[in-house]
Amino acid sequence: MKKRFITSITATFLFSASAYAAVSTHTTVEAPAISATCVGCHGADGNSVVPNFPKLAGQHAAYIEKQLKDFRGGFRKDATMAPFAKKLTDDEIKALSDFYAAQPAK
Ligand code: HEC
After folding, report:
1. What are the mean pLDDT values of the chain's consecutive 10-residue runs (106 residues total)?
2. What is the CATH number for 64?
3. Statement to judge: residues 13 and 41 lie in one domain
4. Looking at residue 27, what is its pLDDT?
C-alpha cells in the first residue's frame, strides 16, 4: 500500500514536471511580425477578449494552419477573415500557427 502511494506521488511529480517543461519551451516561440495584423481581433497572444473573435491561443498548430489555408482557398468562408488570410504565404501561416499554438489559453 505504501509502495503504491509512493509510485503515485512519483508519477504525479513526473507528469507535472513534463507539463511544466512543455509549457516553458512553448512560450519561447516569438510572435512573427505578420501577427501585428491579427492583434486587433485575436489579441497579442491569441487570447481574444471579443466573443465574436475566436481564441487562437493553445489550439493545435495543425488545426490553425488548416483553417488559415481553408480561409485563403475559400473552402472556409468568412467575410472578416478571408481578406487577411488571402495575403498570407505558406511560411507566414506556419509561423503564425506555431506561435498561437504555443501561447497558453487564458
Ligand atoms: C477584423 C478582425 C479579424 C482579424 C484582423 C483577423 N481575424 Fe481571424 N477571425 C476573425 C473572425 C470573426 C473569425 C471567425 C470566423 C468564422 O466565424 O468562421 C476568425 C477566425 C480565425 C481562425 C479560425 C479559428 C478557429 O477556431 O477555427 C484563425 C486560425 C484566425 N482567425 C487567424 C487569424 C490570423 C492568423 C490573423 C492575422 C493574419 C487574423 N485571424 C486576423 C476575425 C479576424
Report:
1. 51 44 58 97 97 97 98 98 98 98 97
2. 1.10.760.10
3. no
4. 59
Ligand 1 nearest-atom number relative to CA 64:
29
What's the whole-model pTM score? 0.82
In contact, 68 and 88? CB cutoff 8 Å: yes
Domain containing residue 6: 1-28
Which of 84, 86, 99 has most ligand 1 atoms within 8 Å of its beta carbon, as the pocket-test mutant? 84
Q: Locate cell 489555408: which residue?
A: 69
Instruction: Please tell me whether residues 22 and 63 are part of one structural domain.
Output: no
Q: What angle do CA 78, 105, 13 make, to 5 degrees?
A: 150
